[in-house]
Structure formats: structure tokens, C-alpha cells
Amino acid sequence: MAETYKIGEAAKLLNLKAYVLRFWESEFPDIVPLRTAKGQRLYAVEHLALLERIRYLLHDRGMTIEGTRRVLAEEKSRGVVYSFDPSSPQAEPHGHYPLM
Prior knowledge:
By secondary structure, the chain is of the alpha+beta class.
């Protein structure tokens, strides 16, 4: 299994609160963490990359949730792939996409 992170670990890596990650799951359909038998959320690196992009658009660029959804949908249609390096989580989001 690929490396996964519990919600608290993911939140710390992204400099966010766990409740923000839970809220974003309800707002962005591509965020579907794995679940343990006990229901614990497990985020893969791919989830962290997407969450980092969302954080960047919402917090750093000041976009709305709806605007962020549109950007992500457009990037997805173009096949944009995001990456995340857990060893340097505060870096600007990686990927091939235009800064809007």
C-alpha cells in the first residue's frame, strides 16, 4: 500500500485544521480518503497534493470555493497532475497549471 497519513498528520503537513479537511471533503468530490475498518481517514500523497492545491487557491489566491471548483475542473479536463513532497509541505503547490 502507498504511504498514507491520518487526518491529523495530513492537517499538520498542510498547515490546516482537521475540520477543514473534513469540510473540504464535502465541497470537493475528488477528495475521498481511504477508510480503515474503524472509519479512520487515511490520505494518500495524491490527496495531499490536491488538498495543497485547494489550500493555495483558497488561502493564497483568495478564490471562492466555487471558483476553486471551476479551476480544478478545468485543470482536470486538461490532465493536470499535482504532486506533493511531504518533506517540504510549505512549498508552493507543484504541478503544471496556470496561475490565475
